[in-house]
């Protein structure tokens, strides 16, 4: 099992992942982020946001598996899975299982974060922490030195 902290993950993995991927782009197109997000329509800024999340502050020294267990943005999680090489089936299943919680019109703002947290939990039922770490390890082995 891979032993990597947030800073290492941000530098050695996240920074090297492609920004625009078909499944993630389709998910975002069909279930867009709420308006007014600073990274809206700029995937490279969303990637920079994720790199900062893993690399800075309290996540810097945490094991990457612990951080995966705390992510609460389903669209970012699907992008991450797709970029790391998760199967199309699991990426689509992650979308389908999380959609029931996402972007319901009329959902009060106070409940939207809670809905995202529930959706993220559903994704982790498909790709648990051990499976995520295996995925990272395979990606690192395949892309080492690039």
Helices and strands in order:
Layout: H1 6-12, H2 22-30, H3 43-55, H4 64-68, H5 74-84, H6 88-99, H7 109-126, H8 129-143
Question: Could you give a short description of this structure?
Answer:
This protein has 146 residues and is mostly helical. It has helices at 6-12, 22-30, 43-55, 64-68, 74-84, 88-99, 109-126, 129-143. The mean pLDDT is 82.
Q: What do these coordinates show?
A:
This protein has 146 residues and is mainly α. It has one domain (6-143). The protein has 8 helices and no strands. It has helices spanning 6-12, 22-30, 43-55, 64-68, 74-84, 88-99, 109-126, 129-143. The radius of gyration is 15 Å and the shape is globular. It starts with 5 loop residues before the first helix and ends with a helix.
- Give the end-to-end Cα distance, rounded to a whole number of Å: 21 Å
| Radius of gyration over C-alpha positions, nearest whole angstrom | 15 Å
The percentage helix is 55-70%
Order of helices and strands: HHHHHHHH
Number of domain units: 1
Number of helices: 8
| Major sheet | none
What is the average of the pLDDT values? 82
Structural class: mainly alpha
Quantity of strands, as a count: 0
Shape field: globular
Low-confidence stretches: none
Query: How much β-strand is present in the residues?
Result: under 5%
Give the tags.
146 residues; mainly alpha; 8 helices
